[in-house]
Amino acid sequence: MTSYILIGVGVVVVVVLVVGGYLWQSNKTYPPVDDKVLAENAAFIVGERTAPETIDVFEDFHCPHCKEFEESSGAAIQAKVTEGTVRVRYHMLNFLDGESDSGDFSSRGAAAILCVARNDDRDAFWKLHSALFANAGGDPSNAEIAKLAADAGAGPAAQKCIADGELVDEARSMADESSTQLANSNDGNVATPSVLSAGTQVDGILDGPAWLDELIANPPKS
Prior knowledge:
- The chain folds into two domains: 1-30; 35-217, Glutaredoxin.
- Helices cover 55% and strands 10% of the residues.
- It has helices at 2-27, 35-40, 64-82, 105-119, 122-134, 142-151, 156-163, 168-185, 210-217; strands spanning 44-46, 53-59, 86-92, 194-197, 200-201.
- α4 (105-119) runs antiparallel to α5 (122-134), α5 crosses α6 (142-151) and α6 (142-151) packs antiparallel against α7 (156-163).
- This is Thioredoxin domain-containing protein.
């Protein structure tokens, strides 16, 4: 009988802990999104500072839905940047590192983008960005990513930076900061792809590029 009582008490303790954890999580509050932190931790920024709309795009190179987002909205985003109506801050996250065979493809891809940001122009970025998403679900080596960068028009400095993994640690740190801001925008949830405008989640981004025209026509209030 005693053993049954002890088991019963153990179950009660577990239930209390689970309920307590749920209540704590549901009552937890998150600070407002910090635009300065977002600006400082974007892996690549494209578009004029004077553009009427600035968006933050959060992606992970091992994320299949991010590949869908790139295929459905990538060209539309580039067009809006080129015409001067949108400025985009790209945040390359790495919470899917463990899903790749190497255990760090998301971080290495983010570092590659950072290498291009430090050494090359937006055309090289866009081409490498698309090429890495074309490999989503794969696990290219640093040397293979450097070759993709070369094919995208990145110069020798960026290629060496990528091949040597020079900025992986920095990319991880930036991903952490960006993830925190994304969590603050969405009650602690971090998911990719996500788009923020004025710190607010943009809906319908996987339903085709119509979200972008709607956002430009009706931007959220800061």
